Automatic annotation (TrEMBL):
Residues 56-93 have a biased composition (Low complexity). Keywords: Signal. Residues 23-95 are annotated as: Disordered. Residues 1-22 form the signal peptide. This is PQQ-like domain-containing protein. InterPro entries: WD40/YVTN_repeat-like_dom_sf (IPR015943).
């Protein structure tokens, strides 16, 4: 198909998407009352029902109930002395209990948005927004034992709407968007940026502010060999430059050639490359700069064999496995997974338009964030599912390895951190995150 004709179709599709965005899967969709969940948080329940096997269909998920009805208690007050400390990090355990008479609940979900692992510790960040997104509390970082899921500690962030948590060289950082203004822009101010976590003192401080970055930190990765951070700095729709940050000196540099880095960031440790997805399109002139680009610290190169001004496959999620990037694209009307994005003539495999990639233990997974949602292990050769299982409702946002045989899945729309089998995606256990809905 002629690329310019496709562009016009793409523009029409995007207009339809904007008209329906109020029903997007990114909005909280919780039916359980947070207070009711808290009242049962001290009781240990049996694990949730296993998910339905969907490996015969790559995009159609039968309606099943969410496993959020059953939760394991995550109260830190029941920790043993061994569980209260992490062998890889100097952590102190929080023992303060909040009285139910002195708290209110912002929402029925604390909006678990991102996961990270370091040693035997699982890091999880919560956005803590109201159901209609009209209000939000400061973000929260929670630390769990990676294998057992036991809550070790919580640390309150200094700013709101966190987007990513990363650990490098023993240091933990959290990027934050902050609140949007009335025009849905993220101003360059002190209410957003990159926070640095003091794990021993259980404190967080704004390390590189939005004033210096130029806007909100909507995505964030770290090159673990150089120690430099890379931030997708959201200013306004379609204006998201890529900024390099020296996390020691706080010096910043804008990477020329990227206009809308909202198409995902990925660090390839094998090749020591940064991958960035550019989704830029001027909806008036239809000038485009679309594609996945690699950056080695000096050179920015398109990985596709098509010119960025002709490429129409808009990247949405990028993950690298064994030195090769894999890409999920979407135009907000349909989505496809590409096992060989470099070849513009290759065929993608269709999935729900809002899907996200994740890696764990050298394998690639795809989360369809539909309602109901699904999890699939991907075949790296043909781009089809090895297996696919329903996750029910809840909007899965991220995934990391718990151990060789299991995965932790973060849910955004329900108050749940779920452990599933790495072999088939079926539920092993569920942990309630409802207590993080509380505000004093």
């Amino acid at each position: 198909m002629n690329h310019k004709i496709y562009t016009l179709i793409l523009a029409s599709s995007f207009a339809l998407f904007l008209g329906a965005c109020s029903e997007s899967s990114s909005s909280p969709n919780c039916e359980e009352d947070c207070m009711e969940e808290m009242s049962s948080s001290g009781e240990e329940s049996s694990s949730s029902e296993d998910g339905e096997d969907l490996s015969k269909s790559s995009s159609s998920v039968a309606d099943v109930s969410s496993s959020s009805e059953n939760f394991q208690s995550s109260s830190s007050s029941a920790l043993s002395s061994e569980e209260k400390s992490s062998s890889s990090l100097g952590l102190s355990s929080s023992k303060e209990e909040s009285s139910s008479s002195s708290v209110v609940y912002l929402n029925t979900t604390p909006n678990l948005a991102d996961l990270e692992t370091s040693g035997d510790t699982l890091f999880a960040i919560f956005q803590r927004q109201s159901a209609d997104f009209s209000a939000m509390d400061k973000g929260l970082l929670a630390l769990y034992n990676l294998k057992s899921g036991t809550l070790l500690d919580t640390i309150c962030l200094q700013t709101k709407n966190p987007s990513a948590v990363k650990v490098s060289n023993g240091e933990a950082y959290v990027s934050t968007n902050g609140e949007y203004d009335q025009n849905y822009n993220l101003p360059a101010d002190e209410n957003r940026g990159i926070e640095k976590i003091n794990l021993k003192e259980k404190t967080s401080a704004l390390w590189v502010s939005g004033t210096k970055l130029g806007g909100g930190a909507s995505d964030f990765i770290i090159n673990k060999k150089t120690g430099k951070g890379y931030v997708a700095v959201y200013k306004s729709y379609g204006n998201t430059p890529l900024v390099e940050v020296d996390l020691t000196t706080k010096a910043i540099k804008t990477i020329d050639g990227i206009q809308d880095a909202s198409g995902s960031l990925e660090y390839d440790e094998n090749e020591n490359l940064i991958y960035v997805g550019d989704r830029f399109m001027d909806w008036t002139t239809f000038v485009m700069h679309i594609g996945v680009f690699s950056y080695d610290g000096e050179n920015l190169l398109a990985i596709s064999d098509t010119d960025p001004e002709e490429e129409v496959r808009m990247p949405y999620s990028i993950k690298s496995v064994q030195g090769k990037p894999y890409v999920f694209i979407t135009d907000f009307q349909s989505g496809k997974f590409y096992a060989n994005y470099q070849d513009s003539e290759s065929d993608g495999v269709s999935f729900w338009q809002d899907s996200k990639l994740a890696t764990a233990n050298g394998k690639l997974y795809l989360m369809e964030r539909n309602s109901p949602s699904s999890l699939a292990e991907m075949d790296l050769t043909n781009g089809k599912p090895v297996w696919q299982t329903s996750l029910g409702n809840g909007n899965p946002y991220d995934l990391v390895a718990a151990d060789e045989g299991s995965l932790w899945v973060a849910f955004y729309d329900i108050a749940e951190l779920r452990k599933v089998s790495a072999q088939n995606g079926k539920t092993i256990e569920s942990i309630s995150t409802a207590e993080f809905c509380m505000r004093k």
